[in-house]
Design brief:
Shape: globular
Radius of gyration: 17 Å
Largest sheet: none
Order of helices and strands: HHHHHHH
Mean pLDDT: 91
Oligomer: single chain
Low-confidence stretches: none
Number of helices: 7
Length: about 180
């Protein structure tokens, strides 16, 4: 039974990492008719980022806000897609309730970590500018290996936007060869 849960949680993390990588690389960095607004907003975010990673004009496109139309649609699609995939893979071993709650926890963690790390990397405080809130800037410890990895990974993405697509769930960049360590 424990082995099944280990495989389930590992699979959930890998699914989240690959999904984040895919969305960042192919939706946020490639123009398309369906996701053009996401692409344009993300392109603008890269243009507005200074060499010290601060933002030139305001705080647009820093936080993920589930209360906007786009945020609600993204959250709902990810929730239904991930719940469906994991249910198809684990319906014999893991209860639907555990799958449902795990996906929900991963999505909420994704939003919290995204808002916190993304804001912090750009010199902002997620607790002040994001809804839902992130962790206040004063509690972020850059010496923590995981926090340091996420911050430097995002900085490397801004230095060379052809890699380092994982911001919250590192892993797929290593799997797909798009991880680099160069930062300004």
């Amino acid at each position: 039974m424990c082995r099944n849960y280990f495989i389930f949680f590992t699979s959930t993390y890998l699914l989240a990492s690959v999904e984040e990588w895919f969305a960042h690389k192919y939706i946020m960095h490639v123009p398309s008719s369906i996701f053009n607004r996401v692409y344009e907003n993300h392109k603008l975010h890269h243009i507005q980022t200074n060499t010290d990673y601060t933002i030139k004009n305001g705080i647009e496109y820093i936080c993920f806000d589930v209360m906007t139309f786009d945020g609600f649609i993204q959250f709902t699609v990810c929730f239904l897609l991930n719940t469906g995939i994991l249910y198809l893979l684990f319906y014999n071993d893991i209860s639907f309730c555990v799958i449902y709650m795990t996906v929900l926890v991963f999505l909420v963690a994704n939003i919290l970590v995204w808002n916190t790390i993304h804001s912090y990397t750009h010199g902002l405080d997620a607790y002040e500018i994001c809804n839902p809130k992130g962790i206040p800037r004063k509690y972020i410890n850059e010496k923590n290996w995981y926090v340091n990895l996420l911050i430097n990974n995002h900085k490397a993405h801004h230095y060379n936007s052809t890699g380092n697509y994982n911001i919250v769930f590192p892993g797929a960049d290593f799997l797909f060869g798009s991880y680099n360590t160069n930062i300004r």
